[in-house]
Design a protein that fits this description.
alpha/beta, TIM Barrel, seven-stranded parallel beta sheet, 11 strands
């Protein structure tokens, strides 16, 4: 297969979660208005690498759920089920899991999707001492909370600081070289994280609070600058309600968020973290960028707004590559 032209990196896709919803990731979607993400769609859009999540949800009775934060065994089980999905996809030749720096080389050239495993909510890590097991099994990025927080920290829908165990987990992840993801952290936990670690931090799928809404799900200008000061980046989330208020989002709205982050923190501070199909349908995304095949339209819109050359290359892949190369083991 020919090499992809300027391949994309998408910093946030819930691939295992979609598989548990019955999506055959190997095949074109049978319900494209409900599910747009699959391996053929990613290939058609020129996506060569993604951060694929292990997403678990407290209180859910579904396969990705567990009863409560204190049930570490159930949370761990839910997380392992999703890890096994990635391992099966790799064993059957459908993806390649990125475990070390060299696994990034030549991404986009073979047509085989590279996947960096990102844990979204750290409750499957029973204790900080168990972080090593997850690292040994391929997890390279961890966001300690989903919306409702975790035993380790507050989330964007449930305020709170890092717990004592949360601070210990940050230290354990730092010792392993795991990258921190600040998306979904409460603002108090974000501040605590930045105090406990001096390492790079990303927000894999978060937009600008100053544009959409001043709520903890979005990043304040101060947070964006703080992430950039560590060499991190913000991943543009393509959920329409995170792009525009009280109306259908457009490509212009997506571009506006990109331009705002660039103005605050520079070209290296913004990339893609689409979250396509992450609990919403393609129709909830901006017109013109509702599924992976339409990412070239987003690229064209950015070019039309003056994001060209190395700045556009940074958004498409170079900014994520820089961060991953710095954080992954040799």
């Amino acid at each position: 297969m020919a090499a992809l032209a300027q391949p994309w990196i998408d910093g946030h896709l819930d691939l295992a979660y979609l598989s548990q919803h019955g999506v055959d990731l190997r095949a074109t979607s049978a319900s494209p208005d409900r599910f747009g993400v699959n391996l053929p769609a990613l290939a058609a859009g020129g996506v060569g690498l993604v951060l694929g999540t292990i997403f678990t949800e407290r209180g859910s009775t579904d396969a990705w759920g567990y009863p409560d934060d204190d049930d570490g065994s159930a949370a761990e089980h839910a997380g392992r089920l999703q890890l096994e999905i990635y391992e099966r996809l790799e064993a059957n030749g459908h993806i390649r899991i990125v475990r070390r720096r060299g696994d990034l080389d030549g991404f986009g050239e073979s047509g085989l999707l590279r996947v960096v495993i990102l844990m979204e909510c750290a409750d499957p890590i029973r204790t900080p001492a168990h972080a090593r097991w997850w690292f040994d099994h391929g997890v390279r990025v961890v966001g300690m909370a989903w919306a409702y927080g975790s035993r380790y920290c507050g989330g964007n829908a449930q305020d709170g600081p890092l717990s004592v165990q949360g601070r210990e987990l940050v230290q354990a992840l730092d010792a392993l070289g795991v990258l921190h993801d600040a998306s979904h952290l409460s603002r108090q936990s974000f501040d605590d994280l930045m105090q406990v670690t001096d390492r790079c931090v990303v927000a894999s799928h978060s937009n600008c609070a100053s544009i959409t809404a001043d709520v903890p799900r979005h990043l304040t200008d101060t947070q964006i600058r703080a992430i950039a000061a560590r060499g991190g980046l913000c991943g543009l989330n393509l959920y329409g309600k995170f792009l525009a208020k009280d109306r259908t989002a457009t490509l212009d709205d997506a571009v506006r968020h990109v331009l705002h982050v660039r103005a605050l923190a520079g070209d290296g501070s913004i990339a893609l973290g689409s979250d396509f199909d992450g609990g919403f349908t393609p129709l909830a995304c901006p017109v013109g960028a509702q599924r992976p095949e339409e990412l070239p339209r987003l690229g064209a819109a950015l070019e039309g707004a003056g994001v060209t050359g190395t700045a556009l290359e940074g958004f498409r892949n170079a900014n994520w590559l820089r961060v991953l190369r710095q954080s992954l083991p040799e």
